[in-house]
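User: Here's a structure from my thesis project, written as structure tokens. My advisor, Dr. K., wants to see whether a designed sequence matches the one we expressed. Can you design one independently, without my sequence as a hint?
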């Protein structure tokens, strides 16, 4: 069923969107006027208006709106809409009124009464179009910032909706929606911390606070070990693994360093540089992870309301009281030293009558342990080691070609190519492996059975990588893989969030905002190498 219609509407029939993702969440927008004023403050609306006055309205780029309670709110093209409204009524301009009047004089105002508009039935139906335009097509449109995308996609996570349901409706990967949810929760925590007003103002400016630096730091191998966040798909929440006050020690430090630009992509771009940054933290910022507590980021945000300042986070237990000072003219009585407990010597054996006593045995020499030889490090500039070979008789030679190319790609220079090709290799060899055991036919039959009557799977359908790996991991001895390969699979399939190698691979391939390093790719391959080498 078609979820939109084409309508001809006047500019006066249209309203700017109060839920525009570009509007900062820290600022209240109570009516269309407040939105128009904000867009005039932050955007070059005059330039858009002058372009419309000179060139007219392009019919190939219609406005997109949603009709709610009889009101047509424009969800794509708000800057153009504001420019049109100011051409129609220059007195609404909060600045450059004379220039808007001049542009209005030169414009064909009759066009403003006859606008072609695509009108959707609801916001969810239009969402896939907007996401594609603002995240996958940056050359055509100004892309959303990371936090803008997170606000937009997570706004559809209403009560009773699951991650897969919402991701499917938005036409995005579950991993992308999961990343948006965690990103938004971390950002809200940063906003809730008791920083000085000037710091809070900089964090609240979504156009200036570089949220990607925060996400990149926490998703790094060192950051993952420091913060130990876990994501629960069932309720869509990120959880701590240890005490919240201890968690906030390094978290608040990281936020301050991002604001002051003591942590950014120029200073800490590689995994090694990020590790060096975190290692520079003194004891004040290092958490005690011994107290195991499972609390959500929402619980931590609630806890921040009890804090008056950052000093409350870094307060430590007072030292034990000093001993009392003796009165003048008296000699302090020292604490008596504990008497050592004598160790009884073993009684010597009784000598046999008529024989001289035996001499005491000489102490046995202490053997000097030989140092174990250190294994030689396997050096590489590529992700995959040069000694990896293709042994199995794959039905297509493409696997051999991909392995050869992965050996040649310098991951320092071409990390995106290397990451995408590694994911491609995993997909192909895993599918070929289950196919060799006849399991592809079983999985296809299972998928077909889940469809509605009359529906069928698309041509050349293959199972998703995660489903195939889960099938192998749960297959026991059926697939004949050694325990090392099975352990590698089971361990990394069950990990949550950024610890899961498949989550990272999905982010590399599908998330345009995801920032990763060569070391991240090396870590992914190293964790899966026992499985990859066996399947190859």
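Assistant: Designed independently from the structure alone:
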């Amino acid at each position: 069923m078609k979820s939109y219609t084409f309508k001809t509407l006047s500019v006066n029939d249209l309203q700017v969107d109060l839920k525009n993702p570009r509007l900062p969440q820290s600022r209240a927008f109570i009516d269309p006027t407040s939105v128009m004023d904000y867009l005039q403050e932050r955007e070059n609306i005059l330039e858009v208006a002058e372009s419309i006055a000179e060139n007219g309205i392009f019919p190939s780029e219609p406005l997109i709106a949603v009709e709610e309670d009889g009101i047509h709110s424009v969800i794509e093209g708000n800057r153009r809409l504001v420019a049109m409204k100011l051409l129609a009524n220059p007195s609404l301009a909060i600045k450059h009124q004379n220039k808007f009047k001049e542009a209005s004089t030169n414009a064909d105002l009759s066009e403003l009464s006859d606008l072609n508009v695509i009108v959707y039935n609801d916001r969810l139906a239009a969402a896939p179009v907007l996401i594609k335009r603002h995240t996958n097509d940056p050359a055509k449109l100004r892309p959303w910032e990371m936090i803008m995308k997170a606000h937009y996609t997570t706004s559809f996570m209403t009560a009773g909706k699951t991650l897969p349901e919402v991701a499917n409706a938005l036409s995005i990967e579950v991993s992308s929606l999961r990343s948006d949810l965690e990103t938004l929760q971390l950002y809200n925590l940063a906003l809730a911390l008791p920083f000085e007003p000037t710091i809070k103002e900089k964090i609240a400016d979504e156009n200036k606070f570089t949220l990607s630096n925060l996400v990149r730091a926490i998703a790094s191998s060192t950051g993952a070990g420091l913060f130990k966040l876990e994501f629960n798909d069932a309720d869509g929440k990120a959880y701590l693994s240890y005490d919240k006050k201890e968690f906030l020690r390094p978290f608040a430090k990281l936020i301050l360093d991002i604001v002051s630009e003591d942590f950014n992509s120029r200073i800490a771009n590689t995994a090694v540089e990020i590790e060096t940054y975190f290692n520079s933290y003194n004891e004040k910022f290092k958490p005690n992870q011994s107290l195991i507590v499972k609390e959500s980021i929402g619980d931590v945000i609630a806890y921040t309301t009890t804090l008056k300042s950052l000093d409350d986070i870094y307060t430590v237990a007072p030292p034990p009281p000093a001993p009392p000072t003796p009165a003048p003219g008296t000699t302090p009585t020292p604490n008596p030293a504990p008497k050592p407990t004598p160790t009884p010597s073993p009684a010597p054996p009784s000598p046999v009558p008529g024989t001289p006593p035996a001499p005491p045995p000489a102490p046995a020499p202490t053997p000097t342990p030989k140092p174990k030889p250190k294994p030689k490090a396997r050096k590489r500039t590529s992700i995959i080691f040069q000694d990896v070979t293709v042994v199995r008789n794959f039905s297509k030679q493409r696997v051999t070609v991909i392995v050869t190319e992965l050996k040649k790609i310098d991951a320092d220079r071409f990390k995106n190519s290397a990451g995408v090709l590694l994911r491609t290799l995993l997909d192909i060899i895993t599918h070929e492996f289950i196919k060799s055991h006849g399991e592809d036919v079983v999985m296809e039959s299972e998928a077909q059975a889940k469809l509605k009557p009359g529906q069928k799977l698309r041509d050349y359908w293959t199972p998703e990588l995660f489903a195939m790996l889960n099938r192998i991991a749960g297959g026991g001895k059926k697939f004949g893989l050694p325990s090392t390969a099975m352990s590698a699979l089971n361990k990394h399939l069950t990990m949550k969030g950024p610890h899961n190698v498949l989550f990272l691979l999905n982010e590399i391939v599908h998330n345009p905002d995801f920032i990763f390093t060569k070391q991240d790719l090396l870590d992914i391959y190293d964790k899966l190498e026992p499985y990859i080498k066996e399947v190859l």
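When you compare it with your expressed construct, this may help: The mean pLDDT is 83.
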